[in-house]
Each structure stands twice: as structure tokens, then as C-alpha cells.
Automatic annotation (TrEMBL):
Keywords per UniProt: Hydrolase, Metal-binding
SUPFAM superfamilies given in the database record: Metallo-dependent hydrolases
InterPro entries in alphabetical order: DNase_TatD-rel_CS, Metal_Hydrolase, TatD-like
Gene Ontology molecular function terms on file: hydrolase activity, acting on ester bonds; metal ion binding
Organism (species): Pseudogracilibacillus auburnensis
Residue positions binding a divalent metal cation 2: 135, 159
Protein name, entry field: TatD DNase family protein
Gene3D superfamilies: Metal-dependent hydrolases
Entry's family note: Belongs to the metallo-dependent hydrolases superfamily. TatD-type hydrolase family.
Keyword Hydrolase included in the entry's annotation: yes
Record has Metal-binding as a keyword: yes
Binding site for a divalent metal cation 1: 9, 11, 95, 207
Length: 254
């Protein structure tokens, strides 16, 4: 597909070095203009920083993924210091949010400390005037919307979003972005979401190295996603590419 596009959410540091090199080398061939490379903790953030310094196509995003144990006070302070040091070069704060899947595994896990941690990142994003990359699905999404509204934060990207109709309507009203993965090829839930969500608030992602098939996840897969979005929206493919590319580029100030 000759139209340019951006992978709006990928865990590039979780690929092997060989796969990282292959992906970055092949970006130009597949018309992938940039990778929004999110991190999961401080060690991950440092790897993303190194990749971004070496490759201009890698756009760094630093944060603490919620589907893990809470950081210690020392770990959190080190991460906060890192964010402060990198605020001019990072394109967003993320991946941050709430531990939905972790709570499915452990019903005794308290969500309140995670909410406090997320609010800390929301405040930092507002102070730095940076977007937020959010992991907030199902019943967690309204909680996150509450926090975003509390701090008047508009630049919010709910990656691989899953939620109810009421929350979707609220997110649309607030102008929050979502991103769609290749699961649009087989998930009715994702197809229904795309049908109702405004095109100008949609981005596309792989969430790699998460696998959707036997083939290793590669940014080239977002072209399949793009074609499905065009079919669902009943719009010319060129218009869909241009709109989503522009949305992603503007959202992340690329």
C-alpha cells in the first residue's frame, strides 16, 4: 500500500535485537513513517531511549505499565526523575493506566494505589504538556475518564480500547483518541467500535510483539487494519489513510 502510516503503539524493546533491526530496516519498504514506542518501566524506558537515539523513526514514550506490581518509592522516584530529564525528547507519557487483567488473576488486588499512581502520571503529562498513552479497558475506562476530566487533560490515547457504549460516547465527547489493532480482522467488538467512533479520533497500532496470528507481529500488519477500517466506514482508502496519519502525526507532534 503506497500511503504512509504510523504504528501508534508498539513495545519495540520487547523484540529481539535481530527483530528490532529487521523491523526498522523494513519501515521504508512498508511506508511506516514512525513507531510510537511505549515503555513499561524504567529499564524499558532506557532501552526505548537508546533505540530512539539510534533511529529517528522511533518516537519514545516513557511510563509504567499497570499490569505489574506497583513500583517501590525509590523506583517511582527514579522514573519520575527520568521523565523530567527526558521531557523535551519524549513524545508522550505511557503506557500507563489501571491493572484490569491483573485484577482478573488476583481479585484481592487493591486498585486504589494504581489510581494514585496513574493520577501522578496524568499530572506530569499536564505539566509537561504531553499526551498520555493509556491502558484502560472495560470498567476501568470510566475511572480514567474521571481523572482526565478532573485535571482537564484532553490529549488522551486509549490504546486497544474495549468498553461499553456509554463510555465510548463519553470518550468521543471529550475528544479522546483510540487505536485499533489487527484484531479488527476477526473481533466483532473491534469492528463495532470502529463503526461508531469518529474517524478523526482513530489511530492504528500493532501492540507488538503481541501476536495475532502464527506470524510474528510486524508494523506492516497495520495496512490490513487500514483496509478493514475503510470497508467498515465505507470510505475511500486514501481518505482513511490521510485522516489517520494526520491524526497520529498531530496528536504526537511529530
Amino acid at each position: 500500500m503506497p500511503f504512509p502510516i504510523i504504528d501508534a503503539h508498539i513495545h519495540l524493546d520487547q523484540y529481539s535485537q535481530i527483530d528490532q533491526t529487521k523491523i526498522i530496516k523494513e519501515l521504508i519498504h512498508y511506508h511506516i513513517k514512525a513507531l510510537i514506542a511505549v515503555s513499561t518501566n524504567l529499564a524499558s524506558a532506557k532501552q526505548i531511549k537508546s533505540l530512539a537515539l539510534a533511529h529517528k523513526e522511533v518516537k519514545p514514550v516513557y511510563g509504567y505499565h499497570p499490569e505489574q506490581e506497583l513500583p517501590s518509592e525509590q523506583e517511582l522516584q527514579q522514573l519520575i526523575n527520568f521523565l523530567e530529564e527526558q521531557k523535551e525528547t519524549m513524545v508522550a507519557i505511557g503506557e500507563v493506566g489501571l491493572p484490569y487483567y491483573l485484577r482478573q488473576e488476583n481479585s484481592l488486588l487493591k486498585v486504589e494505589p494504581y489510581i494514585e499512581l496513574l493520577e501522578c502520571f496524568i499530572i506530569q503529562a499536564k505539566n509537561f504538556q504531553k499526551p498520555l498513552v493509556l491502558h484502560a479497558v472495560y470498567g476501568d475506562a470510566p475511572i480514567v475518564c474521571d481523572l482526565l476530566e478532573k485535571h482537564s487533560v484532553k490529549l488522551a490515547h486509549f490504546h486497544w480500547f474495549k468498553g461499553d457504549k456509554k463510555t465510548i460516547e463519553r470518550m468521543v465527547a471529550n475528544g479522546y483518541c483510540i487505536s485499533v489493532t489487527p484484531d479488527i480482522l476477526y473481533k466483532e467488538r473491534t469492528r463495532n467500535l470502529v463503526a461508531v467512533y469518529p474517524l478523526h479520533l482513530i489511530m492504528v497500532e500493532t501492540d507488538g510483539p503481541w501476536q495475532f496470528s502464527k506470524e510474528k507481529t510486524h508494523p506492516k500488519m497495520i495496512h490490513f487494519t487500514m483496509r478493514e477500517i475503510a470497508k467498515i466506514k465505507k470510505l475511500p482508502i486514501k481518505e482513511v489513510y490521510e485522516t489517520i496519519f494526520t491524526t497520529t502525526e498531530r496528536f504526537y507532534s511529530l
